[in-house]
Structures are given as C-alpha cells and as structure tokens.
Amino acid sequence: MTDAAAIHAATLTLDTHIDIRWPEPPDATTETDRRVDFPKMLRGGLKAAVFIAYTPQGRRDAEGLTAAATRADAMLRHIRTRANGTTRHFCTTAAEMEAAQAAGALCVLSAVENGNALARDPSRLALWRDLGAIYLTLTHDGHNDLADAARPKPDLGDGVAEHGGLSELGREVVRELNRLGMLVDVSHSAKTTMMQAAELSQVPIVATHSCCKALCDHPRNLDDEQLDMLRATGGLVQITALDGFLRPTPPGGKSPATVKDMIDHVDYAVSRIGIDHVGLSSDFDGGGGIPGWGDASQTMNVTAELIARGYGAREIDLLWSGNFRRLMRIAASAAEAR
Predict the structure, then answer these.
(1) I need a surface site. Which of 85, 113, 244, 277 has the fewest CB within 10 A?
(2) Would you tell me which CATH number, out of the four given (3.90.1150.10, 2.102.10.10, 3.20.20.140, 3.60.20.30), belongs to the domain 2-336?
(3) CA-CA distance, 333 to 338, in Å (whole number)?
(4) What's this model's pTM, rounded to 2 decimal places?
(5) Contact at 8 Å (CB) between 17 and 281?
C-alpha cells in the first residue's frame, strides 16, 4: 500500500462523471450524504471531478424543452460556484487541471448530460461552453431530437429506434461541439448513434461512463465492434463503477460487483484496444458506487487494484486522466484551428 499511496498521491486522478442533486444541492464543502463532496475527495485523493448538469428525458413539447434548457443552464452556473479559486479551481482545459494539481488545489469541471436540454437549438452550446462545460452526453435514457438512445422509453412513445442513429440535428450538434472545443460523449447512446458520431466527429469521441459488453451484456455497454471503433478513431471508454454494468444482475437483486470486477473491464478494454483508449469514472450519485469504491473517499482502492494487476505509474496516469487530457487537448486544438 505504500507504493500505491505514493503513486496515487502523484497522479492527477480525474473522475469524468459525477451527478449532483437538483434542485437544492447540498453544500459540497462540508460532509454530506452524497457519495462525492470535497471532504471525501480530499480523503480519497480524488483531485478532479466533472460534475454533471443532468436533465432527464421528458416530453419534447415546448414546455418540456424549455424546462430542460433552463435546468441545464442553472446547474452549470451552480457548478461554477463550487470552485473558490484557491483550494478549488474551476477548470475548462487540460492545462488548467495540471496547474491546479501543481498548486495543490482540487479541480472542478462541468458537462451536460442529455442533448435534449438544447431545446433543438445548437447555438445554446456556445452558452454552455462559456459557462465551462467540457462535453455533452448526446442522449440519456430515451430517444431525443439529436439521436437514438441505448435504452428507449416506451412510456414516452419510443420505439426501438427513431432516427437510425444521429438525426440531422444531431449531426449539426456534433459539428458544433467540434467547433467549440467540447467533447462528444456517447454514453447512453444507441450503437448506431455511437458509430455514426465516431465517424462524423473531427475529434475523438468518449464514452464517459460505460463498460464492456463482452463481460456484461447490458444495453449501456460497448461491444467489441464499438471498442474497436474507439481505437480506430482515437477515442476513449471510461470504465465506470456501476454494478449492473460490471456483472449481470441476478433476478430480484443487485449484482455482486466490486472494484476487482471494475478492473476486469479495464483489463479487457486495454487488451482489446490498448491503454491509450481506456479510462476510469464512477457515475457517483447517478447510480455508481460498488464495494471498494463506494464514494470518493475510497478512490485510492482503485489505484491499489490497478497496481495489483501490474499497471505502473505511467499506465495509471493514463487511465486516471492522461488519456482524457489528451482528448481535451485535441478538442481545443481543433477548435483553435477553425
């Protein structure tokens, strides 16, 4: 554990997907009942976190779309208030994260989950980027006007597919994300959506909280063809700590997934597509949390398990944030070149 503690302390540990309670989020500067707050991050050595402005998929009428857009805007503004500029820096680039780590400060980042909150207006992405968002998850559960989701919502009238992947609006949104330097997140997307986004995007795409279908046949996981597409296009899968994605759920109960199961998925993805295309995330406070990594205070257990599997300091840095920082730099460079 001494080696694990030293490597963990030196690594820019980044969790790419953490939900927040809304409305009435608790004060994250104090100990809370949530899986992530700043005291837990400090105890666990989790140095950076992408907090999510999440909007559930609802009816796509004027009222529903306006409510989703208003909620996403407000959540992004709130996330910025979690940084105080001294012990917690609000970061929008890889360089800012690295500078915060060097200064001994935690990194607060933000993103939007569910493109439905655009309310069919791609120009809203510029506002979100100005507010600091680094990526957009194209869909959540349920199809939206941008794309088909991996898990349709029959209660909203969804069939198996609506667009056959990306809609024309969805393609416009991918191009606008590229223009602004935001990443395209395909977690929750249907396979057709994910494959088309990978082909269309001028910047490698990311699945910020997904696992491997070969090890757990869940509609939210990526199959081998999807993993291979990430390798071919320079993309990234962030293996996540959600039990139902890691091991099949038995009838009437939760799966017995642990950190070992999570790193089994890491091992599989690394073997299939290479260390440069794999990362880590928790989906804390959005369903994530497993024995061994039940909250942010237990983050070092993930590093310890990686070391036990034979990963060294360089590989652990890539998994925790190096690969994601690479994508952020590519996105920023592509935007500057336009």
Answers:
(1) 85
(2) 3.20.20.140
(3) 9
(4) 0.97
(5) yes
